[in-house]
Amino acid sequence: MTIATPTSLAAQNGVPGPDEDPYIWLEEARSDEALEWVRNENNRTMAHMAQDPRFDELTAEALAILDAEDRVPYVSIRKDGLYNFWQDKQNPKGVLRRTTLESYRTDEPEWEIILDVDALAEAEGKEWVYKGSSCLPPDQRMCMIALSDGGEDATILREFDMTTKQFVEGGFVIEEKSQGGVSWVDENTLLVGRDFGEGTLTESEYPFTTRMWTRGTALADAPEIFRGDAKDVSAGAYLLRTPDGEIQARIAYRGLSFHERAYYLWKDDEWVQLDLPKKAGPYGILDGHMLFSTDVDWDTQGQTFPADSLIAVDLEEWKADPNGATKTLVWAPQERQTKRGGNSTANSAYMSILDNVVGKVLKIDFEDGEWVKREVALPDNATLGVSTASSESDEIMFTSTDFLTPSTLWYTDGSGDPEVLKTSPSYFDASGMEVEQFEATSKDGAKIPYFLVKPKGMEMDGTTPTLLYGYGGFQVSQLPSYRSLTGKMWLEKGGAFILANLRGGGEFGPGWHQSAIRENKQRTWDDFIAVGQDAVKRGITNPGQLGIQGGSQGGLLVGTAFTQAPEAFDAAIVAIPLFDMLRYHLIGRGASWIGEYGDPRIPEQRAWIEGYSPYQKIVEGVDYPAPFLWASTADDRTHPAHARKAAAKLKELGQDYWYFEDMTGGHSGGVDNEQRAKLQALQIFYLMQRLMDDNEAE
Questions:
Q1: 477 is catalytic
Q2: Which pLDDT score is estimated for 169?
Q3: CB within 10 Å: which end of the chain, N or C, has fewer?
Q4: How far, in Å, CA of 577 to CA of 570, rounded?
């Protein structure tokens, strides 16, 4: 069998090759042999699941929620209306549609269809998945629509007119699927970062060059305006605009690692590197100022700006002297605070923050020479976010949610406090449930918070089937939210749910993340195991009724947990995972994550990774908790090879396991609601069998 990878340990700088790993052939996503293996595994799993009528019942429950017509249709505010992308039973691939604010306020808004993806897919014989658009400010009439065939990250791009609701005849088109994107300079010019052939992609398979493409010319002839380095994760250029769309500067960046960047400003016909920490970068323009954000302490101009703060410089001064403009503090976090994200209206910036894992939203303005921050009047003790904002007015929408309260959408035009605009219906009975927060003590003594959603008055006698969910990477926070599918399919049936706030995430700011990366990544795995053990000690559950779940980085998390502490759990859902960490940089876009995990080609760093890589930790003589692994054939980010190889090795050792591969979806799995419902049902049914049925039988 021919494989597209180097074949010896020497060639891999110590990384396992075919002689050491007999399942490398599964790294070929769509080879005949690999797909035959996938079909056999899928048939085995589905034959087992389908024989129990509960599987169809669970699928129907999930589909009813996913297809519900009364769920909140979240929108983006544009000059010509409110836009929404919607999928349901009648529109499985989805429709891009718009309405007015007046109509949106009603229970049944009148929607104008802009793009019917189902009709487009049928006409062209493709499994089109809508991946968003890049539109020309300020009116956003002309857009480049991104489409993926089957859900992979790679897309094609086509020019689309939002007014005529048609693809532009003879317009901009990039039919060669690739990573990267475009941004508009003006109606006849695009900045394009794509795969332009040999010598234009990084080791992580992302573009590192940008071209300026003029209408009526060939893309291949477009002049290159910026070039990073093949060793970068990615690189590109974009335009810095005010909220009304006016171009202020041309910016370029080089992704030195997943978490580090170098930035450049186009000035006097050359690129000038900005004097910024590698973990700092532009945040946006507000009230005549350029804002920067930093994830590390920034010593500059005789002062120190703390990590996670916002810093401002006068915009005109910065354009004239980008490294000498006077810097002032806009906002700095207090203890256990961190900023999450935000948006800007025509006149104000809004930033959501976490304060001890509780949400707040701040309105930021520059008034009388000072930065003024005001807390927006939104619910207490909830997870809050900025949903969308208008660049032409002060209109803005916010979201609020928690474990037991359906999500609420809030609106203000800037003249007063936000008002409720939409409320999601209840999809499960939360009246008999409650939420508590606890702390576990990790191996090194660190206190790790976690939330528990459980039946009210639940006896802490260790007999409750419990699902523990975690992520713990890339500074991504895990926050309370209304999980309708989990509530209906698991909590209503008597299960409990735990959400862990592990180091490596972002719940307490950049330091919480940076304390558990690279040589310290084992801390994340220790934290997760500690939370599970703490749940047992408190009498929430017992190892025979404790299951764990995570996807992507979370799939790696679950893999480390069930290989390092197999006795602590009786179910493990390993979703779209990383798993073979000694070869992860060669699989999919794994090389882009070296900043998080380290490089297995470097002996010192290989030692960190070898200590936990789950694929190599599956060994003979250990009783693992019959994991359920699932992946997606079209996932070109976290490649299905990781899950495939794990299942193959478990099979070789005679271990119990289940495997399923979605053969159409991308990184998140499922291109339509039917497939998403099926994936959800597979996981919940597996948990019921492992954590409920087995114990009832005893």
A1: no
A2: 96
A3: C
A4: 19
10-residue block means of pLDDT along the chain (698 residues)?
36 74 95 97 95 95 94 95 96 97 97 98 94 94 94 90 97 92 96 95 95 97 97 96 91 97 97 97 95 97 97 97 97 94 93 94 96 96 96 95 96 96 96 96 98 95 98 97 97 97 97 97 98 98 98 98 98 98 95 96 97 97 97 90 98 97 65 90 97 69
Angle, alpha carbons 68-160-94 (nearest 5°) = 15
The yes-or-no answer on residue 48 being catalytic is no
Domain ranges of the chain: 33-63+427-697, 71-176, 179-273
Q: 363 has which bridge partners?
A: 350, 374
C-alpha 434/C-alpha 653 separation (Å) is 42
Q: 424, 552, 592, 613: which is the annotated catalytic residue?
A: 552
| Candidate list 259, 513, 585, 667, residue with the active-site label | 667
Phi-psi region of 402 (alpha: psi -120 to 50; beta: other; left: phi over 0): beta
Q: Contact, 422 vs 408, CB < 8 A? A: yes
Please give the backbone phi and psi of residue 182, each rounded to the nearest 5 degrees, phi first: -135, 160
* Contact (Cβ atoms closer than 8 angstroms) between residue 183 and residue 238: yes
Give the position of tokens 């004097």: 275
Q: What is the pTM of this model?
A: 0.93
Whether the Cβ atoms of residue 561 and residue 482 lie closer than 8 Å to each other: no
Residues 6+ apart with CB under 8 A from 22: none
Closest C-alpha among 110, 108, 90 to residue 100: 110
Give the pLDDT confidence score for residue 670 in this predicted structure. 54
Q: How far is CA 541 from CA 330, 433, 454, 460, 547, in A?
A: 46, 16, 11, 8, 10
Superfamily, domain 33-63+427-697: Alpha/Beta hydrolase fold, catalytic domain (3.40.50.1820)
Distance CA 694, CA 683 (A): 16
Q: Which residues contact 307 (CB under 8 A, 6 or more apart)?
A: 294, 295, 296, 297, 509, 510, 511
Beta strand ranges found along 179-323 (DSSP E): 182-186, 189-192, 209-214, 224-227, 235-241, 247-257, 260-267, 270-273, 280-286, 289-294, 298-300, 303-305, 310-314
3-state helix/strand/coil string of 292-356: EEECCCEEECCEEECCCCEEEEEHHHHHHCCCCCCCEEEECCCCCEEEEEEEECCCCEEEEEEEC
